Amino acid sequence: MMFTPVSNSTLSFCGSDNSSAYKVDNGLLNNGCFLDALGVVPHVFLLFSTFPILFIGWGSQSSKVHIHHSTWLHFPGHNFRWLLTIVLLLVLVCEIAEGIVSDGFNQSRHLHLYMPAGLGILAAITSIVYYHNIETSNFPKLLIALLIYWTLAFITKTIKFAKYDDHGIGLRQLRFCITGLLALLYGLLLGVEVNVILRRRYMWFPCPTEVKPPDDLQDLGVRFQQPFVNLLSKSTYCWMNTFITSAHKRPIDLKTIGKLPISMRALTNFQRLRKAFDAQKGPVPLKGSRWIWLALRQAFGRPLVLSITFRFIADLLGFVGPLCISGIVHHISSDNHSALPPVKLLGVHFISSEAFLANAYVLAVLLFLALLLQRTFLQASYYVAIETGIKLRAAIQTKIYHKIMRLCTSNMSMGDMTTAQICSLVARDTNHLMWFFFLCPNLWAMPVQIVMGVLLLYSLLGVSALIGATVIVVLAPLQYFVATRLSRAQKSTLEHTGERLKKTNELLRGIKLLKLYTWEHIFRSSVEETRRQELRKLRTFALYTSLSIFMNAAIPIAAVLIIFAVHVHMHSATDFDLSPAVAFGSLSLFHILVTPLFLLSSVLHSTVKALVRVLVLCPQYALQLQAKIVNRKNKAKQDVNRNFEQQDQELTASANQDEDVCIKIVNGYFTWTQGCPTLTSIDIKVPFGELTMIVGQVGCGKSSLLLAALGEMQKISGNITWKSILTACVFRKRGSVPYASQRPWLLNATVEENILFDMVPNEKRYKEVIEVCQLQPDIDTLPQGDQTVIGERGIILSGGQRQRISVARALYQQTNVVFLDDPFSALDIHLSDHLMHEGILKLLRQEKRTVVLVTHKLQYLPHADWIIAMRDGTVQTQGTLKDIQTLMNRQDKENTTELKRKSFRRPMYSTDTLATEDEDEESSTSTDEDSLRAELHHRTTIPWSSFATYLHAAGLLLLPLLVLSQLSKHSLMVAIDFWLAHWTSRVIAAQIESAERNCTDTKFSHSSYLQVFCGLCALGIVLCLVTSLAVEWTGLRVSRELHCSLLHTIVLAPMRLFETTPLGNILNRFSADTNTIDQHIPVTLECLSRSTLLCVSAVGVISYVTPLFLIALLPLAVACYFIQKYFRVASRDLQQLEDSTEMLLLSHYSQTIEGLTTIRAFRHEQRFKKKLLEHTDANNISSLFLMAANRWLEVRMEYIGAFVVLIAAVASISNTLCSQLSAGLVGLGLTYALMVSNYLNWIVRNLADMEVQLGCVKRVSGLIHTQPENYDGLMTPAQVPAGWPKYGEIQIKNLSVRYDSSLKPVLRHINSHIRPGKKVGICGRTGSGKSSFSLALFRMLDTIEGQIVIDGIDIAKLPLQTLRSKFSIILQDPILFICSSLSPVFLSFNLDPERKATDQMLWEALEIAQLMPVVKALPGGLDAMVTEGGENFSQGQRQLFCLARAFVRKSSILIMDEATASIDMATESILQKVVMTAFADRTVVTIAHRVHTILGSDVVIVMKHGAILEYNEPDVLLEQKDSVFSAFVRADK
């Protein structure tokens, strides 16, 4: 087993027990000691020659080097040199171990057996350090020392090997094999050195090869150094040390992590993938998806093969651990003298490999080295696979974006591909592909690992091992079934989650309207009902998750029980009995085998999902996009070819008369869909350098005409001429056209960046545009002025501000043509006039720009040089004002009671925007309030208070059950293993006792031990089930409680919360954060508690077995503490950075799709593609650093685990020599020690994950503590008189209100008396307090003083629900609620969510709102579907539906807040008359920008700075020439 201690411990180089040790009668080279001494010479030479250079002369040498020291100039054979040096070190360690073991058979110590090897290790380390310094300093001439060293070492080892062979020492002697291997290694290193000389030509060659640093390293912004560092740093991630430790001092941001290396950038990998795709497009195209896989293999196959190779090596090394444990326990439990005795030749002993491996200490060291190598190769496999997956993801994302840029908006508008689907494609499907690449090595390695494990188990346990493996294989389909059900449950849950988020988003978008109409309880009930359905699916998901956790824990216990029971039954009467070596060796093997057996089903399931995603992602999507683009272009090309001669003749004939025409459309038919054309018989011309106005009623096709000219609509026939140049594809010929859409599209950037839009800054013009659009007062109110980031879709701005910034962007561009689509709709009369006169008539006209303006403001028609009048999708007339004045006058006189209009299904893109609310948390593009800067600076310790909040929500019943079940389960697991150790130790003790008594009958009774073992295992299986159920049910309880509290709080929260908090932030609490609480925290909590208890159990068991381990535990614990401390901070920052960059990436996709028309109109496709590459690279560099940080942690924890195993093994062996420690306990301790590294990894990783996930609980908890509105009143609903308010009399007495207690009053000392049934008009400049006046009637503001009395009741005394339910209001921004797949929302629901009105009442309201013809034309009528944002209706039609909604309610008081801003003047005039008629006996308060709309009011109120400036009848105020109202009226004409 082990060497016997010698009596004489005299220390001598050649030993003192052999008188012939120093004799050289037969020649020096025939003396074994001399041969070993000769091998010292090269090592001494290297040490003495390199140390002065390294420590004395390096400074002067490096001063001559002109290359920065942070660069790595790898010499030829760099990686091979490092690999050979590492192998050399391992062989030298084996030589030392062999020398020490051989020396144990001598009477004195022979230093020559292991001292040369020790010097060789020192020399090898010195050589690689020396080489590294020369390489990083690019001073290759000093490599001459290494050349000499490798030559001398190769010669000495070759001589030694030859002499061994001469004396008959062969392969049976281990030292012979080691010497030959060393000679080979030194020879290979010599070859590497010669290769460097020949390649670099640096010695005797006259012209050395000039070498430059890699392009990446010339850019000091590249900080991801994994591709450039040496092999040791690559394998141990030492280059991350500085990065990880610096993260603890300051936050990690994009500047900290720098740029990606060129080979990892999205553009590089996109080009690589594109080349691979192009290579597959041969003369005979491949069918199915085979060509895709061939392209992926060509582009990214080589690193995947490398990853699979690393995984194979790691798995093979993984089996060394159980075999070594079995060997150690076997040698401890019995005196082993079966190995061959050593042979004495050349004066020293030579041992065989069997005798070498019979030493327990050798096995401990071998186990340690195997663990180091196994973990290193495993992490290298993970790294290469994930890095390749990230590269593939970047390439696919870039390819998708390039397709999006060429998409036909009309195809998307009909729902073929929505923004949410594309975001899901980018966020989810590409990640599936990435993880498929990560799983690929598992697919290849797991079958081999399973076969190897079963064979080794069979060698230890015989047939019983096959029976145990069969049990697991039989149960594998059950695992696959559970995994499949789990995936289906998750998919079903996601459907309901998406539905809940849609409803929540609708609730948040329309929260102001819902509160004003007291409909919030209706929508809250709808969300709660969907949440209940979601929770039912979550319960199913939790059940299958519990089953999965249970089976992962219980099946190994059952299999071990069956294996040992069968083994005892079959071999109890033979020598092949159950021993500690067999038990714990097989147990360690079983731990290795269980992982691939369990994961194989999950890996196969994930692989199938990835294959499906590839089929969806690559061929169908790519080909679908291509088809849409190609069909569109081909159609245009066919039209051109068909009519080319005719068009050419027409152009030639009209060339002279059309010289002043900028845009001309002849006989154009355009459509958004494949059905009937939206625009018909379009014959228009737009003169050069003049102002062209397009007018017409709501829904007549004005905006569509602009988009048709830009090429965004599908052209059925006709031709479009830009500057008299006929183009088959408009995009290829026309230049940039600044386009301001009807609904403004803004970037999530600063105000300045939105206006400049990547143009060269021109301070003078910038100031002119700001002044023209009256933006300076608004900019002054922003926190950082024009450097303020305006958020997603300009969420922090008002509608008018967004509109003016959009117009300012168009005005700032210095191009020939400008398109403006209804830019005045959200502006008051003064802003409209200023923009018209100063911006369009002055700024643009002076520059001779061609301006095409869509507008409803007919008072500006006299300024137009050319007018195009639209009606029902065609051009009614065009010409100057005089040409069409007769027709316009006649149109004003017609249809005084109703307007018959055709309904045009307008696409979601026709207004250049999309409602892109997310279907699930992964496609969420909303901006989190924890923005990148705030998130990265939010660095605290583990949020234990949030953890307490989470556990408190679990309740008093589940929490104790969770804790007790976990403790009981792991205590029982330890008890099972302890019983196994006791059982096997008793078997050995019985055998020894029988041997001492010379008994032939050595039969041992296992029955009592087996019964206890069975009972413990059965109880353990039950506790596994209880624990898994307790964790998941705790998570469900917390999910239900927190979401219910959050929804209740949000619905009751004051409007101030929604005005100061972006919608996306609140929605994120319901999406990403709720999803984390629902599905991720329970899993993380279970894994964290399990790994922590397992680690504590392992350390406890090892300490019990070998108390000496406690001495080494302290430094290891300190190392673990600092590693986890630094890693947690860096990991948290990197996870948040990855999430933030992914959010920015998805936001860029969303913004691009929303603004696709604007981007293409401006011709900024390349700019946005470049921005996409920046966002993709930022996300990928974050992912790569996070992945490298995880590898950094795991390598270090694995190395600490290896040291734990080494210390435990050495301590156990030594303890066995000193005392009678049972072999069973030694096996138990080593088996537990082997798993410590895994437990440590999972503890730290899950602790970091839990820290990030508890941030979700903290954010949700923060919102839950929001102070709600005061819904109670001094009166109860029963005390309010029936039918109140009956008359509609409003008395306002000295009223002052404010939005928040921290803000100044917005209304000051308002006094007013509105008599019953009167029509009151309110006007004033923007910010004068008009809307605040209306909101005060609904108690939406804080009252400082005064009161509002309606029909004799102070509204402050009324319950809030009762008050708001008695009024009707029409807001400026029209809101329609959408339909969904699970619970359709029809048009009738938008008119009457309370379901109180009959269909007849709804039709009457639609008739009053002039919408009856439109609704009747829809399929389904009142049951017609409403698309996202109501985009299947025009802006004006949506506003009319809101009017109809108010008519349905028939309240005594109606407030109209800018209700007709998006309606043409003719329709508005009719509606005003209808309102006056329908609400003749009711009080109507109208707030208007267009002053002429309130001329028919009974009373006019003019407001300024929150106070009433003028209050009188309109005729009286008009007679006062100096009145503000008369000035407004004059300006509005």
Automatic annotation (TrEMBL):
Residues 910-932 are annotated as: Disordered. The chain crosses the membrane at residues 40-59, 80-101, 113-131, 143-161, 173-198, 304-329, 349-373, 433-457, 463-482, 541-566, 578-600, 942-964, 1009-1031, 1101-1123, 1199-1217, 1223-1244. Residues 305-609, 972-1251 form the ABC transmembrane type-1 domain. GO terms for molecular function: ABC-type transporter activity; ATP binding; ATP hydrolysis activity; sulfonylurea receptor activity. It comes from the Eukaryota. Belongs to the ABC transporter superfamily. ABCC family. Conjugate transporter (TC 3.A.1.208) subfamily. It is found in: Membrane. This is ATP-binding cassette, sub-family C (CFTR/MRP), member 8b. GO terms for cellular component: plasma membrane; protein-containing complex. It comes from Sinocyclocheilus anshuiensis. Pfam families: ABC_membrane, ABC_tran. Keywords: ATP-binding, Glycoprotein, Membrane, Nucleotide-binding, Receptor, Repeat, Transmembrane, Transmembrane helix, Transport. InterPro entries: AAA+_ATPase, ABC1_TM_dom, ABC1_TM_sf, ABC_transporter-like_ATP-bd, ABC_transporter-like_CS, ABC_transporter_C-like, ABCC8/9, P-loop_NTPase. Its main location: membrane. Residues 915-929 have a biased composition (Acidic residues). The keyword ATP-binding applies. One of its GO terms (biological process) is response to ATP. Residues 663-897, 1290-1530 form the ABC transporter domain. Gene3D superfamilies: ABC transporter type 1, transmembrane domain, P-loop containing nucleotide triphosphate hydrolases.
